[in-house]
Amino acid sequence: MSAVDELLLKWANGDLTSSEKEELSQHYSMADLDSFIVDTGKLQIETSNVKTEWAKLAHQIQEGKLKRNSRNKYKFLTWLIPLVILIAVGVWYVISLGPDKKIENKTYEPMLIAMEDNTEIMLSPGSSLSYNKSKFANNRKVWLEGRAYFDVRVKGEFSVVTENSITYVLGTTFDIWELADDNLVVQCFTGKVNVSTSKGMEATLIAGQKYTQSIGIGDIVNQNKPKWLSNSIIFEVVPLSIVYKDLERYYPIKFVGEISNLNFNGELPTDNLQKVTEILNAVTSDTYKIENDTVVVSKSE
Amino acid sequence: MSICKEDIFKKLFERCLPNVQRFIRSKGLGIEASADMAQDAFLRLWNNCKKVTEDKALSFLFTVSNNLIIDSARRTKTKQKYLTELVVSHENIDPEYQLQMTDFKSKLEATIDSMSKGSREVFMMSRFNDMTYKEIAEALSLSVKAVEKRMSLALKHLVDNEIIKRK
After folding, report:
1. Which own/partner pairs from B24-27 qualify as long-range (CB within 8 Å, at least 24 positions apart)?
2. In chain A, which end has fewer C-beta atoms inside a 10 angstrom radius, N or C?
């Protein structure tokens, strides 16, 4: 960027000093620039009436509260009846249908798991997968802690249970990622998936769509497989404290120091820690420094 | 501060709604569609009020709005065609100036329409949401340098199209 371009940039942000104004005036008429500010100041993007919009939103919020209250009136039934049934079948369920095999990825690399039905699962570092080996042929259900990419090759129901969700698929490729603190991201690359969370949210995703628990349904951009399989992770509106925890799965390090909860949006590599710190240094207001097996986070002055 | 109390949320809504609607409209949606989308974004903020602090609310709303726009375009199978629509404020403008403004407005709209997406977004937020580069960076979860780069390209585009004239 030339010096003049830098000055123009500062002008547009209202940051010019007197001497900088003098310098810019060698290249642009300040009267013309002032007119631009005045004229664009007289233009606006039309928006709706705030009071009217609040009335609409308040009504929706109230409707949401009323629905919760009417559910609460008979709440005792919603747990009493299932509890009785649950106790009756609980022991039987644990013995006969619960997982009896657990696979843990204790490395810093993705782990390939080939299931008995030819489903291929890439298990991310620090994650674990459990299933009932003897019943799997008739009941394709797995329990996931962490993150995994699934390539379900045989059609028919396949379900993935995490701590806070269940995802049902019908012969498809998809990625499920339950970060810490109740953040869930499900990406559907081919086929169709249905996601239900413990908070009552439900979403059906078709190929090319993703569901992020804090944002909703969106598009998967420029990917036909999750980026973490190609050594990078995309984070969307994720608190930095959780970003650090996830990075600790891929690198043998710990983040220490002033851990904030500001949100991070961006892509970080899983095979280049130096690059990670360069990116974080550039886009956040904190300073990151690698010291042996720690990354020290401190506030910038 | 928690935004889960209705009176606090209302103040946040009143403060942020015009910004959010302008952000959505700057992506080409009409006033009614942008009002509906903004409602949806605020409702999601309300439903996630325990997770989002007040200072991060606007960034959350912009991110949600962006995803809603992409999702909407995908469902209707249309590529979001960008069309700037600005209105002239009618505060004490004489008819002759009004005519000049109309002409300026058309040229500016056409120039903004032909900007790249990233530049357009930053330019609109700077000029019509009256945000500094630092505020835009926080709202879009970008670095200030990234915002400055996009704004620089926007200004270059305005110069190339003689909306801003060099000596």
Report:
1. B24/B65, B24/B69, B25/A45, B25/A46, B25/A47, B25/B85, B26/A45, B26/B84, B26/B120, B26/B121, B26/B124, B26/B125, B26/B128, B27/B66, B27/B69, B27/B80, B27/B82, B27/B121
2. C
The H or E element that residue A275 is part of is helix A273-283
For an interface test with A, which of B20, B29, B58, B74 has the most A Cβ atoms less than 10 Å from its Cβ? B74
Q: Which amino acid is at A253?
A: I
ipTM: 0.80
The residue written with tokens 């892509």 in the block is: A267
Q: How far apart are CA B26 and CA B14, in angstroms?
A: 19
B148, B140 contact by CB (below 8 A): no
Q: Model confidence over A18-43: pLDDT tens digits?
A: 999 999 999 999 888 988 988 888 88
Question: Which amino acid, residue A128?
Answer: S
Residues of chain B with Cβ-Cβ distance to A31 below 8 Å are none
Contact B141 A266 (CB under 8 A): yes
What is this structure's pTM? 0.48
Q: Which domains does chain B have, with CATH numbers?
A: 6-75 (1.10.1740), 95-160 (1.10.10.10)
How many beta-carbon pairs below 8 A join chains A and B? Answer: 158
Same domain, yes or no: A186 and A206: yes
Closest to A123 in 3D by CA, of A136, A106, A135:
A106
Q: Give dist(CA B18, CA B24) in Å, integer.
A: 10
| pLDDT per position as a tens digit, B123-152 | 988 998 888 898 888 777 788 999 999 999
Domain check: are A242 and A221 in the same one? no
| Distance in Å, alpha carbon of B81 to nearest chain A alpha carbon | 17
- Determine the distance in angstroms separating the CA of B61 from the nearest CA of chain A, rounded to an integer: 9
Instruction: Say if the Cβ atoms of B14 and A50 lie within 8 Å.
Output: yes
Domain identity same for A166 and A264: no
Residue B160 pLDDT level (bands cut at 50, 70, 90): very high
